[in-house]
Amino acid sequence: MLITVATGLIGFKKVEENADKEAVTVQMVNTLSTARLNRTLYQYTGSAENADKNLKALQQIIELANSLDTFSWSEEGRAKIDSLQQQTETYMAQRSTFVSSIQRRNELAAALRAAKIEDIAQQTASLSASGSLSPDSTVVAARLEGRLQQSALLIEELIDSGSADIAARLSTALQQSAEYGKALAGQGGELDSLNAALTTELTSLRENIDQFVTAFANQATQSKTLTGTATHLNESVENFFVWQQAQVKQTMSHAMTIMLIAAAVGIAIALLIAWRITRNITRPLRETLHIAERISQGDLTMSISTERRDEPGLLLQAVSVMNENLKEVISRVRSGVESVSRASAEIAAGNIDLSSRTEQQSAAVVETAASMEELTSTVKQNADNASHASKLAAEASSNADRGGKIVGEVVTTMEGIRASSHKIGDIINVINSIAFQTNILALNAAVEAARAGEQGRGFAVVAGEVRTLAQRSATAAKEIEALIHEAGTQVENGSKLVAGAGEAMEGIVTSVAQVRNIMNEIAGASEEQSRGITQIGQAMAEMDTTTQQNAALVEESSAAASSLEEQARELEQTISIFTLSGHKAQAAKKPAASKTAALKPALAETSWESF
Questions:
Q1: How confident is the model at residue 589 (pLDDT cuts 50, 70, 90)?
Q2: pLDDT exceeds cutoff 50 at 591
Q3: 481 close to 432: Cβ distance less than 8 angstroms
């Protein structure tokens, strides 16, 4: 079995290692597909994101290829891994060249798109449409605009295709544009500036066009080379994957063959060992069975011994221990039966004494119950009186609360009257101020009337009357102010008196509330005493019931003692079948009949009272 397990573990370990190898290989295949996809996208879009994804995928492939070095390989497997690593390094080197060529192509394409020929074409169109040129110059300007627009379109086609034919057509269009520019030159003004800008742009464009065609061709060459290398790398990875799958199948088949052989050998050895073990077990079991049959017949006189230390020997020793323990148990049971017989007689005597005491306890319970009934009535009356007093205190507290609220309302009213008095005083001050100002105005009017002479005499009389009325208003305002001040003083004194009355009412309310709380506590205590005495009465009733039950238990105990004596006799007869060393099996002696008389009930059922 151990050989089978060990062989299986070794086989499973190899299978697990090959599974790990296959997992790495599968991951390489998937990662290589990701790298190929992003390389293609980068080639056609020039996106830096695709270039980064392609680089990360290639770096992961290198890491996976290097991780294969941690496994054990055959010579063929090691050669395949070395080839994979070498092809990966070659692919990385060619990728760097490929990325550089694409970057160069993109830079030159950006330079071509940055050319200002469209701006120059728009400027030419503006000059042509302005009417400031001669008819011949207008025709030349229109042709220049057409060639420049054609050149802009050819630049986009060249960037997309990199065709040498398109480059030649673009060069022709640029040459014609240069000739048209020269035809417009020499006329001064904007045409000379236009020709100078056109010459500069055309010179830069010609250089960039040649470099772009070269860069585009170089990028195509590098792409073709990288594609070939990628194809070889894909084939190598796929071949390595197929080879690894074959290795896994071969390893599993080899492990299964070894396990089957080991299992067959293990089964043969197990059968031989089982036959030997069975023989060593059955022989001592027969001896143990014979001894057990003698014990089942009641023969405990045997002396059992063995020197074996295996399981059958231990079983025989256990039977020997059981035999000795059974001897001791039977001896103790016989001794216990005699003790039980004596104890049953003593229990019967104790029951007679218990019956007498139960009668005495019953009489005492009856007297105590009567006293508790009288005490319960008295406490209940006290509780009712306390409850009535608590209700009266609650009513007094409620009346005091209402009085306090009324006093509070009076205080609030007095405060309002005082505030109104202050407001009236303020109004009187305003009237006094108006009278004073009116007096001044009348005085000024009298002065002006005096200055006016005879013409202002009538006005002076009116001003004098107004002044007199103003003085009378001021005098009346002062008198009203004095009266209001006196009334305010009296209102303030009344407010203080009412506030004092309110404080006194609050004290009364507090005192009444305290009295009410005390009466509530007294009522609660009386109720608690009433409940306690009621519980004591219930306890006395339960004691009465318990006493009756005790009387019944005395009768049951007497009957149980008789039954116990009879069971002891039967038990002695039962164990008499066992034969011990130095003893013979004999019939148990029948014990003397119990002399315990049936107990008389302590008290007739009809003589009990319930409370």
A1: very low
A2: no
A3: yes
Of 264, 284, 316, the domain-final residue: 264
CATH number of domain containing 226: 1.20.58.920
Tokens of 341: 């017989």
What are the counts of helices (DSSP H) followed by strands (DSSP E) for the chain? 9, 0
One-letter amino acid for residue 402 of the chain = R
What is the per-residue pLDDT across 344-369, written as a single tens digit (0 to 9) for each? 777 777 777 777 777 777 777 777 77
Q: Dump pLDDT digits (tens) for 544-579.
A: 788 778 777 777 777 787 787 788 777 777 777 777
- 238: nearest Cα among 32, 14, 90: 32
Question: What domain range includes position 169?
Answer: 2-264
Q: 77 exposed, middle or buried (CB, 10 Å; 0-12, 13-18, 19+)?
A: middle
Structural domain contains residue 299: no
Residues 6+ positions from 605 with CB-CB distance below 8 Å: 548
* Secondary structure (3-state) at 299: strand
**Crossing angle for the helix pair 75-113 and 190-296, to the nearest 10 degrees:** 150
Are 151 and 177 within 8 A, CB to CB? yes
The percent helix, strand, coil of the chain (3-state, each to 5) is 90, 0, 10
d(CA 174, CA 120) in angstroms, rounded, equals 13
